[in-house]
Each structure stands twice: as structure tokens, then as C-alpha cells.
Amino acid sequence: MIPEMISHYRVICKLGQGGMGEVYLAEDTKLHRKVAIKSLPAKLLMDKKAQKRLVIEAQAAAQLDHPNICAIHEQLEEGDRSFIIMQYVEGETLSERIRRGPLAPRESLDIAAQIADALAEVHSHGIVHRDIKPQNIIITPLGRVKVLDFGLAKIVRGESVSENAGVTSLWFTDFEAIVGTAPYMSPEQAMHAALDGRSDLFSLGTLLYECASGKPPFCGCCAAEICSKVIHLDPPPPSQLNRWVPPGVDRITLKALEKRVELRYQSAVELMSDLREMRDILQPEDPSSHHDLLRPTAAQSAIALTITDDSQQPPPAFLGAALRDVSWVMPALSRSPQSVTA
Ligand SMILES: Nc1ncnc2c1ncn2[C@@H]1O[C@H](COP(=O)(O)OP(=O)(O)O)[C@@H](O)[C@H]1O
Ligand SMILES: [Mg+2]
Asked: Is 131 part of the annotated catalytic residue set?
């Protein structure tokens, strides 16, 4: 159980839980604002490595100052427990959003571009996030993205890293954590090989794929099966799962999902600029950016009109021209012929 008061923070309710932390909403009684408090779940309270990870998480995230990254206020110890006090982010996680169905292509691109922007900041500090996935992204009511959870973050300062023993054992002894995370891992992560910021770009590719198509690119019944697919399987383009996905989104997604690191996007900035460019090409009113409008494709665009004209007059001249544009012909026909069925 979490205490009711932690320093001058009054705990209000639980906000969420992942594989390695529990997050609570609390009131800062000095500054009179809401904050989020992260602590270890009961099962990890006695785990020294997990305690250390929480402190590393706070230290990594505290270095970052970016509108798309959840801000850290402080890290404190109370009794024998560690807590991270951070900005409370109102909204829903991206996984909750995706559960309602795929996002419109423009929205998917916008969210991915904001995450890429955050990753540019993360990588510029020599940090690899290593856990980019929909559960670790919150979308605010105004559409602003906040990247959370630096629980697996690694401070590499420009060098490639191999998993260090402490993190690997913490990560892989928790079966649920690996099942939850495996679909978003890069091949080098799944192989426990050295990795750098380009691993996060692969994870962002899996997230974009899921936003656009509604399904993650690598699925399976266990972590081993998913990891094997991450390493060996080339997924179909997202447009094969959702026909509203434009070719540009397919292209960006598959480039981010290149198995070979050197064929992938080489930096978060490069990926961000492709995402933004494509987003700006898709105007909000472009029907392909609103797949929920149920717009038929050209091949399926057929409308049968039965027109009964009781006037005994020759067909009005406007009819031929109007038929070229059904949205115009409907009001026009309602003026002249007596009955129209479509
Ligand atoms: N700053 C925050 N504001 C609001 N909700 C949060 C915040 N941080 C985390 N959450 C919620 O708590 C969940 C778990 O937090 P997270 O840091 O991802 O824990 P874990 O390390 O266990 O995965 C998130 O998916 C989100 O729903
Ligand atoms: Mg998490």
C-alpha cells in the first residue's frame, strides 16, 4: 500500500500501472497543483536492483527539457521507499486510443512526429529510451504527445550499449514485462545485441504501424515467438491491413522497420522531418486522412438512379452535366423530375 502522504504530497488515486511501477495522482500541498507519483509495485519493494532502476529512471528523465516529454519534479526517499514526483499528464494513453480502432493517417503521422521530436532530445543527451510503446505515450486532450517511462532508459553518451547484467535480469525475470514489451523491440534488442538511438526509431516504426493499421506488426502467443518475428519477419505494409493508409505512410513505416540498422532512419530528426512532410501533404479535409468517413474507392463508386419524369417534356438539359457530380445532381433532381431512387 502506498502511504496517504509522501512528504508534502497527498495521494489521491491510482493512475496506472506497468510492468515495473505504479503511478498515483497526488496533490502538491505546497504549490497547490496536481502531480504524478511513481513507486515500485509491492512485489519489487525489496528488490535492490529495481530500487536502483527507479533512481536511474528519475536521473535520466530529469536531464530532459522538452514539451513532448513528461517533466520530472524530484526524486525522494521516504521510509525505505523511493518515489519519482513528476508532472501529471491529463489524457489517455496511446494504447487506450488505438483500442478504439486505427487512427487517421494524418493523426498517426502527427503523433509519431511528436514522439520523434522527443527522441531527438533524448538521443542528444546520450540516452536511449528502449521502451517506446503505446502504453508509455499519453495524448492530452489538445493532441499534445507526452513520452513517459524512462524505466528502461540507458545513458550511453554516444556509445553503443550491450545490456548490462542488472537491467537484463530485472527485465527478463518479469515475464509479463517482456511479453508486453516484445512487440515493440528492435531486432538488436530482441537479440540482446549492442544498440543505440536507432533502436528507438525501430520501436517508433512499430508504434506508427499500429496507429495506422490498428495492429502491431509483430504478434505471437509468447515473447519468444514475437522476438523471432521481430528478428526474421518482414511485415506487410500497413495499407494491407487498413486500405486508407496512403503509400507515403507505408514507405516511412517500412523504412523505420528495416531490420538492418544502417538501412533504417539514421536519426530521430531525419524521421521527424519525413513524418512532418507527409503529415503536411495530407490536408485535414483530405478524405484519406478521415477514414471514418467511409469514402468508397473509385472502383466502387457506382450509384444507380431511377428517374421518373411525368412531365411529358424532353429531359432537362442540365441532367447530363449534373450526372457527372452526384452531390450536385441530388438537389437538382429534387427540383424537376418527380421521383428519384438511388
Ligand atoms: N505523469 C503521468 N501522468 C498521468 N499518468 C501517468 C503518468 N505516468 C504514468 N502514468 C500512467 O501510469 C501507467 C504506468 O506508468 P509507467 O511509468 O509506464 O510505469 P511502468 O514503468 O510500470 O511501465 C502509464 O501507462 C500511464 O497510464
Ligand atoms: Mg510503462
From this structure: yes
Domain span at 269:
92-339
Q: Are residues 176 and 322 in the same domain?
A: yes
* pTM, to two decimals: 0.81
Separation of 52 CA from ligand 2 center, angstroms? 17
Percentage of residues in the chain with pLDDT exceeding 70? 76
Q: Where are the beta strands (DSSP E) in the chain?
A: 5-6, 9-17, 22-28, 33-39, 72-78, 81-87, 92-93, 127-128, 137-139, 145-147, 154-155, 306-308, 339-341
pLDDT digits (tens, 9 = 90+) for 82-133: 999 999 999 999 999 999 999 999 999 999 999 999 999 999 999 999 999 9
Q: Give Cβ neighbours of residue 172 (< 8 Å, ≥ 6 apart).
A: 178
Residues 34 and 180 occupy one common structural domain? no
CATH number, residue 209:
1.10.510.10
* Structural domain total, the chain: 2
Residue 239's CB: how many other CB atoms inside 10 A? 17
Q: Which of 190, 191, 217 is CA-nearest to residue 204?
A: 217
Domain boundary among 47, 64, 87: 87
Same domain, 269 and 169: yes
And the C-alpha cell for 121? 532530445
Measured by CA distance, the residue closest to atom 24 of ligand 1 is 16
Q: Which residues surround ligand 2, an ion (CB under 5 A)?
A: 18, 136, 149
